[in-house]
Specification:
cytoplasm, single chain, pyruvate, Oxidized Rhodanese, domain 1, alpha/beta, 279 residues, 2 domains, five-stranded parallel sheet
């Protein structure tokens, strides 16, 4: 299943009640003043789209940001929003590629059967002269039975096992943060990287506001000596842009991809964690 769909593909299914569209735009960390992405959604969105608030839908029992919720909590949230687990779900964001892949990954990891990402997002939709609307969207409550795919998500213990085994770990943060030459946006965290990790800034996977085509992604991963036939774990600052790499890896043909959910926000705050710097 190709995870990307075009505006024309979505437009042809816009009136289908089994098609559910989600705006999953998060404001970028460290950008001030913060952008109110929900207000932007209310002002302009694809007809029928619901706002998928990644922050609100994450696990708030932990101080770590954007952690995957329990299957039970996600079932309740999605059912209330009117999102069924067997629906055709299309996720997009308002500009560029940043947070929509995280929503795509959350939904897939928690049991949605058909999840796609709109290639080019809202910008591509409007550039195709397709209609938009404003205001909130409410759907009738539905049934979402979440089923967590445990192999898709890794915790700190599993991550450390992968470090010890020298398995491939791809870090989506900027090169400066990875090398330790730029600060982390979250206070109190040292920059740097996990032993053996490979720097793959998520921005390198993006071209003209959308993910690069599969052949260019394959070339990018090959240039970094990443073996798509071996297990790969993605990480970043808080688990959001790690999903950009996970999506890029799927497009490139990788089959064994997992995401370290705690990411740098968890790893760097643990006193026993070894942090490497390239200075």
């Amino acid at each position: 299943m190709d995870p990307l769909v075009t505006p024309a593909w979505l437009a042809a299914r816009l009136e289908n009640p089994n098609t559910i569209i989600l705006d999953a735009t998060l404001p970028n960390v460290g950008v001030t003043p913060a952008i109110d992405t929900h207000a932007r959604y209310l002002a302009n969105h694809i007809p029928g789209a619901i706002f998928f608030d990644i922050e609100e839908l994450s696990d708030h029992s932990t101080p770590l940001p954007h952690m995957l919720p329990t299957a039970e909590a996600f079932s309740r949230s999605m059912s209330t929003l009117g999102v069924a687990d067997n629906a055709t779900i299309v996720v997009y964001e308002q500009e560029g590629v940043f947070s929509a892949p995280r929503a795509w990954w959350m939904l897939r990891t928690l049991g949605a059967q058909k999840v796609y990402l709109l290639d080019g997002g809202l910008r591509a939709w409007t550039e195709a002269n397709l209609p938009t609307e404003s205001g909130p969207v409410l759907r009738v409550q539905s049934t979402f039975r979440a089923n967590r795919h445990h192999e898709a998500v890794k915790d700190l213990t599993q991550l450390k096992e992968k470090i010890t085994a020298r398995q491939q770990i791809l870090d989506a943060r900027s090169a400066g943060r990875f090398n330790g030459t730029a600060p982390e946006p979250r206070p109190g965290l040292s920059s740097g990287h996990m032993p053996g990790a490979i720097s793959v800034p998520f921005t390198e996977l993006v071209e003209d506001g959308r993910l690069k085509p599969a052949d260019k992604l394959q070339q990018l991963f090959a240039a970094k000596k990443i073996d798509l036939h071996q297990p790969i774990t993605t990480t970043c600052g808080s688990g959001v842009t790690a999903a950009v790499i996970a999506l890029g890896l799927e497009l490139a043909g990788a089959k064994d991809v997992s995401l370290y959910d705690g990411s740098w926000a968890e790893y760097a705050q643990r006193p026993e964690s070894f942090i490497e710097k390239t200075i």
